[in-house]
Design goal:
The strands form five sheets. The protein has a seven-stranded mixed beta sheet with strand order 1-2-16-6-19-4-3. With about 350 residues, the protein is an alpha+beta fold. The protein is about 25% helix and about 25% strand. The chain is globular.
């Protein structure tokens, strides 16, 4: 009985209205058994993820990216190749990657993976091959609870207008064209943008800038729940550390930030709104420290995730699967900006 596998939930650092369930993988000393253990419980695990939004499986003995790949193939329908990455990753296998290259001393705020893309993964897996010495938690927050907790007028405006993501691909900052689009060829990049409703413009120095318009509130494709599903706060300039933002503006100008977000009508999102979103996430954050070999399963539409600052080595492998297409705010095709 799967309910018997639940560990007693300990208090989290921040009070939260939900708990992150942890399942014991019974006696599984050999990582070669991990895929078989998951395969035998696939339907129950998927049901629990659908019901709770996220869960941790402890005791699988995962040691390598190949172990993670074997588990992904048992629990998911199909892997998802990442496109439009905002930070570099190493690819281990189809749909299996290293964690994003991001300064350890800077947190990655709550977000839904690829919520700005035309298609996004419906299921995420995070596997801990080496826990950090301090910090580095992959925390989660419920998207429906966020929707209810945010001010109604804020939600209503974003639900009406959607949100804009502006990106500037500057050499040496963030992901390269090849890392984001799988190619550096201009024609291929333009074809991708056209097919995925992304407006683009090439700058005199040869760099690329893009803009895409996406929903901020969506319905879960299975449950029908309304979810706060976006990266409005995470990718906004006011979430950056002040010294980082100042440096980037000095170096590239206010329109050359590697990423920034706006209301769907093009208005800037003011600092107090970004702060409100981040504070609401914090109030609904659930944390559990990593242990070596842990596997976290996350419903990417229902549940946002973050990565907290850390010290020491940290090796978390990320897997993406089961692509979802949530539609666009009105008919769109990508085009070259005038």
């Amino acid at each position: 009985m799967l309910s018997a596998l639940f560990r007693k939930n300990r208090a989290t650092t921040t009070p939260a209205p939900a708990r992150l369930p942890v399942l014991d993988a019974e006696d599984n000393p050999d990582a070669m058994d991990a895929a078989a253990w998951v395969a035998g419980r696939r339907d129950a695990l998927r049901e629990l993820v659908a019901e709770r939004g996220a869960l941790v499986v402890r005791g699988l003995g995962l040691r390598t990216p190949a172990d993670v790949d074997s588990v992904l193939r048992q629990v998911a329908e199909r892997p998802v190749a990442e496109r439009e990455a905002f930070a570099a990753r190493d690819r281990h296998a189809d749909g299996v990657y290293s964690a994003s290259a991001w300064p350890p001393n800077q947190p990655m705020c709550m977000h839904h993976e690829l919520s700005y893309a035309f298609e996004c993964p419906g299921l995420l897996m995070f596997a801990c091959l080496e826990p950090p010495g301090e910090g580095g938690v992959t925390a989660v927050a419920d998207a429906t609870e966020m929707l209810h907790a945010l001010p109604a007028e804020l939600v209503d405006r974003f639900a009406r207008e959607g949100w804009l993501l502006d990106r500037a691909y500057n050499e040496g900052i963030g992901a390269t064209l090849g890392q984001s689009f799988g190619t550096g060829d201009r024609g291929a990049v333009e074809a991708y943008c056209r097919a995925h409703a992304i407006d683009w413009s090439w700058q005199p120095d040869g760099s690329l800038r893009t803009r895409q318009h996406r929903h901020a509130v969506v319905r879960h494709p299975v449950s029908g729940r309304r979810c706060w599903f976006n990266q409005i706060a995470f990718l906004n300039e006011w979430t950056m550390a002040p010294e980082v933002r100042e440096f980037l503006i000095d170096e590239y100008g206010p329109d050359g930030l590697p990423f920034n977000t706006r209301y769907g009508n093009g208005d800037p999102v003011p600092p107090d709104v970004v702060e409100q979103i981040n504070k609401t996430y914090e109030a609904h954050t659930v944390r559990r420290s990593w242990q070596r070999g842990d596997l976290m399963l996350v419903d990417n539409i229902r549940t946002a995730h973050s990565r907290e600052a850390y010290r020491g080595p940290r090796n978390i492998v990320v897997a993406m699967a089961d692509h979802v297409r949530l539609g666009l705010p009105g008919p769109q095709t990508g085009s070259e900006a005038a």
